[in-house]
Structure formats: structure tokens, C-alpha cells
Amino acid sequence: xxxxxxxxxxxxxxxxxxxxxxxxxxxxxxxxxxxxxxxxxxxxxxxxxxxxxxxxxxxxxxxxxxxxxxxxxxxxxxxxxxxxxxxxxxxxxxxxxxxxxxxxxxxxxxxxxxxxxxxxxxxxxxxxxxxxxxxxxxxxxxxxxxxxxxxxxxxxxxxxxxxxxxxxxxxxxxxxxxxxxxxxxxxxxxxxxxxxxxxxxxxxxxxxxxxxxxxxxxxxxxxxxxxxxxxxxxxxxxxxxxxxxxxxxxxxxxxxxxxxxxxxxxxxxxxxxxxxxxxxxxxxxxxxxxxxxxxxxxxxxxxxxxxxxxxxxxxxxxxxxxxxxxxxxxxxxxxxxxxxxxxxxxxxxxxxxxxxxxxxxxxxxxxxxxxxxxxxxxxxxxxxxxxxxxxxxxxxxxxxxxxxxxxxxxxxxxxxxxxxxxxxxxxxxxxxxxxxxxxxxxxxxxxxxxxxxxxxxxxxxxxxxxxxxxxxxxxxxxxxxxxxxxxxxxxxxxxxxxxxxxxxxxxxxxxxxxxxxxxxxxxxxxxxxxxxxxxxxxxxxxxxxxxxxx
Length: 550
Ligand code: CA
Known about the structure:
Blueprint: H1 2-10, E1 26-27, E2 33-36, H2 39-49, H3 60-91, H4 99-108, H5 114-122, H6 124-127, H7 131-142, H8 149-160, H9 164-173, E3 176-177, E4 180-181, H10 182-189, H11 196-207, H12 223-232, H13 237-247, H14 262-270, H15 274-279, H16 281-286, H17 295-305, H18 307-312, H19 317-329, H20 343-356, E5 367-372, H21 390-404, E6 408-414, E7 430-433, H22 442-450, H23 461-468, E8 475-480, H24 491-502, E9 507-512, E10 518-519, E11 528-532, H25 538-547
Parallel strand pairs: 5-6, 5-8, 8-9, 9-11
Antiparallel strand pairs: 1-2, 2-10, 3-4, 6-7
Helix pairs in contact: 2-3, 2-4, 3-4, 3-5, 4-7, 8-10, 9-11, 10-11, 12-13, 13-14, 17-20, 19-20, 21-22, 23-24
The structure holds calcium ion.
């Protein structure tokens, strides 16, 4: 590091240790100083990353409270924009989970502003697209406000605007969640049936049908409910499989005793949506439907390799990554179920992960993808996925850019911690090249990064290292929680020195991996950008930013 010190000493650009503030910064949670992000950025981070599992510095509850404060501030500023952003991110499937959008919508639907409240309630069917979503919303909104007329009318509209067939499907597929059921909600909102079909469907959800005969229900919109009642009484796998085939019953409608049957799953797979297919790969392998040679495996492979289908299904990359890690593991998170993963399926999941981000434009720029592998990044679980820490998830995110761009270096960085003689593993401050290539499958990448030694946090390291080693980069991408504290120079100062010394108008992209309120990017520098990790829009935003003029 001597060489670097002499470079810094010759330079006139300011050098401030991260333990002292520079203009625009505020104390972060780690004892250093970072830029506070504005409320809208924080709101977006929350919509994408949620606050599930908390972070290294904040419990889930504390993190939710902090994010709530940001939502309130945004609502005060522009309620219509809050609702617009919720709808935009939810409808495009940009977030790993829809929960944060439903939570924020419940907050907007409970605020003081009449116009905002109405906009939020009008947007309910767009954001709550399934029965489960509706129950989540009900639980969130119930904690915020009373069941006034506007809210009851919005819930009634949710049911009333559905076509007969869609209504029947929602009623039978998701009957109850979070302590709420369709029976509760239909009674609470006094939904008035607009047709005889709705009348019979509502009656079934609230009271059940008095009798279910052998002959299919004469109304084609309601015949699926009839089949659902019949499968509960089915005597054999064959009977169950026939009902599934003939009436397109989903897995949720199948009684437990049939869920170990190959012929039942074979029938389910014929019309299974891609998301359900991905979630049930382990089960279908365990019971013996998916084997290296089976036709069912070919069906699954064709679906996973169909990029358009992956995108249309709005299957989130995190859902695919999570499924891949479980699948290759060969055993469930809970219980003692085991299976022998089919290699081709693991590989197809890996491919589907990239497809789920959609087309990303290559820029031809020189990238340094720098993963903050410090201790704090090892805490918490991205989108509540067990074992998927922010630092492990950042490896998957880096591979997305690596898959598109030709000139990429991937490194992990962490600082030595005084008193421990370097990293916990006994090294020194700095960067470690991470052996990730386009051939690396995601589960290996995540494992590789999870095993790196950890230390303190110095987010200036990527820039100081590049300057010291005369490495040329157009774009520094730092995947971090921005809780930087251990460096002798602020990251933005290091970037400005790099620009001055090399003559390269290098840019900095900060990929926020935790929904906290900090960034190492200076909001007043047009050459720096804040994006959110695992927003499916992030790779394209980065690409546009890398190409754009400053
Ligand atoms: Ca850290």
C-alpha cells in the first residue's frame, strides 16, 4: 500500500478518512459516514428487497419501521407517485416477493389524504393478483385502519370484477392465508353477486354447497369447484388424475394422500404454470416423476429453456436461484426428504435465471464488479431465502453483467481489522479475484463467495486498488450495504482521484443489497448511480447508465 500512499500524497484531491464526514454525508450504522439516500430511493429499495430477516445492523422490526418512515415521507410529498411506483414494480414482477408492494399499498390505502387513499384502493386488483395477495393485503391493512366503506367496496370490487371462471379458480386455489379466508372477506365486504354464477360461487366460499352430485355441475364456470369437491372424495389415484386432467385442477386442490403419486403429478404437470413447476421440481424428482430419461423431464426442460415463457411467467430470478440451490442440494430445508437431482434440470434452471432478467444490452465498457464480502454482508437473507446472504446473492447478481459484457473482472473486497492481524482468515486489506466465469453455475458461485474470509468494510478499495495497479475501468460496480468505515479515504474521493489520475471518466454504480438508508454514491455526481440488487430492471439500468453521457 506504500505505492498508493505516495500517489495520494502527490494528489491535490481531498483525502478524508471514512471515520470523518465529507460534504453531504451522515453517520451510517457502522461508525463511518455515507450518503443518506433520499426517501424515494429508500422506498424503492424496500419495494424490491423488503425487510424480511432484517440486516446486520437492524432487526426486521427496526428495518420495517425505518422503511415505514420513508413511505410516510413519500406519501406526504406525492401520494399519486407512491401508488404509481407500487403498481409499476408489482405489475412488472421486478421484486422477488410481492409482499412489500402489498404492505406499501395498505399504508397508502390508510393515509389521511382522500385522493391517495382512493388511488391505492383502485389499484388493489393490479397489485393483489391472487387470493393469497388479497389475504396479505387484508392482514396489512387491518393493522392500519378500520374497515370503512371505501375499503369494503374495494374488496367487493376485487371479487365482483372477476369473470366466473377466474373467480371460481381463485376461490378454490387459495382458500385462506394469514388468518384470513374468502369467507371472512366476502362477509366483511358484503359483496353483491352480479350474476347467478357469482351468487353460487360466493355461496360455496361462505357456506359450502349442500350437496355435490356425481354429475358435473352444468355451469362451465363452476364445474372446477364441483371437481374440487369430487377430488376430496376420490377413491384412487386414477380417479384423482382424471379429475385433474378433465377439469384443470391445480396442485392446491389435491388432497395430501395423492401428493406422492406419480400419475397424479404427471396429470398436474401437463398444465402446471412455470412458477409452480419450478417450486415443485424437488417433489416431482423425489416421487420419481422426473428422472434422467423420463418424458416429464423433457417437458420440464422445454419449459425452462423457453426464454419467452420464463419472461411471460414473470418468474423472478431469486425464485429460480432459490429453487436451484434447493434442487442441487438434494434435500429439503425442513424434514428429511431427499432426492437425486437431474443434472440437466439444474443446468436449465441456471439458464432460466439469466432469461428472467430479460434482454440486457452489452456496452463494451470495461467493468470492475466488486463484491463487498465484509462481515455485515453475511447477515440476513435476501427475500427471506434461507442461506442467501446479501454477499452470496451479490455473486449471482455480478454473473448477470458478466454474462453480457466481455471485459469484466470480478473481485471481493474487505478490509483488515485492527487487532486481529488482518482478515479473520489472516490476510491483508484488499481485493481478492473471485474465480467466476460464464461457465460457473450459480450455486457454485454463491458457495464460492460464501466461503471467502470476512473482515471490515472499506468501499474505497476497488478504486484505490485499480489506481495502484494501473487497471483501466470505465465502470466500477460495487455490491454493498454501503456501511463503510474502515478506509483512509472516502469512496467518492477515491473515484475522483482515479478519474484525475487516469483521465478515464469512470462511473460508479452502487448496487444496494440491503434496504437501509445509505449509499456510497454521491447523489450530486451524475457519474454515480444507485440501483437495487435483484430488481429485475437493474442490469438494463446499469447498461444504459454505462453508455450514457455524464
Ligand atoms: Ca460491512
